[in-house]
Inverse folding.
């Protein structure tokens, strides 16, 4: 039996990579209300298979597999495949095909804001990223339901319904160099996901001055 990787990576003989996120509501990973509250999502790569390499996790859109059999997730839908990607999950199947001794099976789609689709005996697509306030991102509305997801159409559609947003944002996708957990640089990331939060200025010496104000009221 194949299981989803933590973070919503699609299940399969070669499972998809999970996503990492920052969200406003706690809960089980795939709790829909909790998934809706994500304000940052870093995508995961699609799983590879015997005939094809999975697509890396993308930025606004996940990458397709090398032979384009598995499609990457987008800002508004999980990509179509043998099993489609979904909101917060890569597509995947819990089965093995072909002769048992060869263990032929499926790969899993990468997770993300929306997950990548999967493919029989070929690589799957990577997931998409999301940052509230990042140009090109499309935010879900608070009223969205699991079976009826809707998106902002007015104002800045990149800003999460909570109003929390980020400025001067950059997304480095899985085809580009990024800093690893140990401080070195790598193309994409192999292994467990991680989130690094760094202060950009020293807040340890902030002080406050008390300024008294006096008011005199006259009654006539």
């Amino acid at each position: 039996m194949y299981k989803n990787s933590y973070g919503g990576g699609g299940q399969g003989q070669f499972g998809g990579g999970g996503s990492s996120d920052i969200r406003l509501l706690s809960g089980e990973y795939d709790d829909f209300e909790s998934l809706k509250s994500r304000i940052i999502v870093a995508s995961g790569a699609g799983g590879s298979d015997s005939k094809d390499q999975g697509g890396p996790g993308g930025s606004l859109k996940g990458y397709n597999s090398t032979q384009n059999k598995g499609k990457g997730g987008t800002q508004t839908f999980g990509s179509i495949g043998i099993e489609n990607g979904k909101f917060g999950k890569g597509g995947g199947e819990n089965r093995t095909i072909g002769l048992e001794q060869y263990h032929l099976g499926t790969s899993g789609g990468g997770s993300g804001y929306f997950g990548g689709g999967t493919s029989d005996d070929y690589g799957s697509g990577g997931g998409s990223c999301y940052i509230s306030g990042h140009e090109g991102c499309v935010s879900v509305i608070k009223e969205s339901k699991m079976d009826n997801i809707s998106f902002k159409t007015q104002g800045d559609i990149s800003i999460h319904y909570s109003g929390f947003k980020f400025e001067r944002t950059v997304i480095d996708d899985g085809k580009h160099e990024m800093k690893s957990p140990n401080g070195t640089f790598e193309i994409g990331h192999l292994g467990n996901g991680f989130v690094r939060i760094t202060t950009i200025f020293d807040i340890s010496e902030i002080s406050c001055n008390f300024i008294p104000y006096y008011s005199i009221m006259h009654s006539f």
